[in-house]
Amino acid sequence: PTWVQMTSFGPQGIALLHHIQKLDLIRHTRIVTVDTLHLFPETYDLIAKAKDFFKLGDNLKVYKSLEGSRENFEKAYGSKLWKVDLQLFEFLTKIEPTRRALNELGVLAWVTGRRRSQGGERSHLPLVEVDQNDNRVKVNPFVVWEREDVWKYIKKHNLPYNALHDRGYTSIGDTISTDKSSEFDSERAGRWKSVAGKSECGIHL
User: Fold this and answer.
1) How many CB atoms lie within 10 A of CB 118?
2) 3-163 CATH choice from 3.40.50.620, 2.40.30.10, 3.30.230.10, 3.10.20.90
3) I need a labelling partner for 203 at 20 to 30 A (CA). Which of 35, 51, 118, 120 fits?
4) pTM summary value
5) In whole angstroms, what is the distance from residue 126 CA to residue 83 CA?
6) How far, in Å, CA of 27 to CA of 97, rounded?
7) Which ranges carry the Phosphoadenosine phosphosulphate reductase domain (predicted)?
8) DSSP string covering 75-108, please?
9) Which tens digits make up the pLDDT trace of 84-104?
């Protein structure tokens, strides 16, 4: 296939996977996730559960930083690279693995679970867009869904989700960029709390 679902296995990514399964498209779809080497243990647990639940098999492709492990990464760049050079950290752990996945898999189009109601740079997200960097098509089928729509869908179909959501995390990235947020905050308010005006890691920018 020349199209993939790019997912971090957030709630909307799980709901999207379920739609793909219902349409009998799992076998025609590459499911790609980026392991930043700094994910929460609960996220690794969810990836394993989702792989089994949706019977993804070899269709799930996990891409990591070229260093391959957190130990190797910290040997090469130290344990606090994100404090020293945040752009380099994001490039090595997220952007480069994403580009490598898209190129190696010959992707022409990718599907995401991004929504306008997540706020920030996503507030005016179109249903279909063309990435200005590489001319690949991005499709955002849940663009008009609200957070409540996603959770209602997950509960209705008894889908797996990250256990951290039950502990006050509304949006989950890696351990570096993610914190709890108030129920009154925007959905991605817990992302990059220490960096003013930042809510994206760079993969979609």
Assistant:
1) 24
2) 3.40.50.620
3) 51
4) 0.87
5) 33
6) 23
7) 4-179
8) HHH-TTHHHH-HHHHHIIIIIHHHHHHHHHTT-S
9) 998 899 999 999 999 999 999
Residue 110: how many other CB atoms lie within 10 Å: 23
Nearest to 19 by CA among 123, 127, 156, 122: 156
Residue 141 CA to residue 159 CA, distance in Å, equals: 19
Q: Is 63 a catalytic residue?
A: no
Q: Hey, what amino acid is at 26?
A: I
Concatenating the DSSP letter of every residue in 144-176 gives: T--HHHHHHHHHHTT----GGGGGT-SS---TT
Please state at what angle helix 11-22 crosses helix 147-156, rounded to 10 degrees.
50
Give the active site residue among 201, 202, 204, 205: 201
What's the CA gap between 66 and 63, in Å, rounded? 9
